[in-house]
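S.,

Sequence below, as promised.
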Amino acid sequence: MEVGQRLPEILGKDQDGKELKLSDFKGKKLVLYVYPKDSTPGCTTEACNLRDNYERFLSLGYVVIGVSIQDESSHKKFIAKYQLPFPLIADTEKKLVGELGVWGEKKMYGKTVMGVLRTTFIADEDGKIVRIIGPKEIKVKEHSTQILDL
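The prediction came back faster than expected:
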């Protein structure tokens, strides 16, 4: 996906099995953040940073949605443990990460592996991508500031 394109209509199912669609959020700006794995240090730091600034996102007309390839059960535990106020899409079949182009090769501990490339997509009220923050740019401790202080 690139800036100027619309996000896919079907985003996927959240931690409660509810299907989320892009059209559900028409009129709202959308922060769709894709992260590698629930409850890992970097992903937890990123999620908690977004949680701690969630009211600011809402006040500015944003909806925040997380996406990773773990299942609904894993997401429920992650949400409960860290009191996350936003939904997490369980993309176990890697459909959405594939469509977004964020499933690919990455280096982990000196080895090349396939995995989710941490990426954030920011879309306007019509679902059109206005900004993409890529894996090399994201600072998990200050991700909210990166998103909101354009």
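The chain is about 25% helix and 30% strand.

Coffee later?
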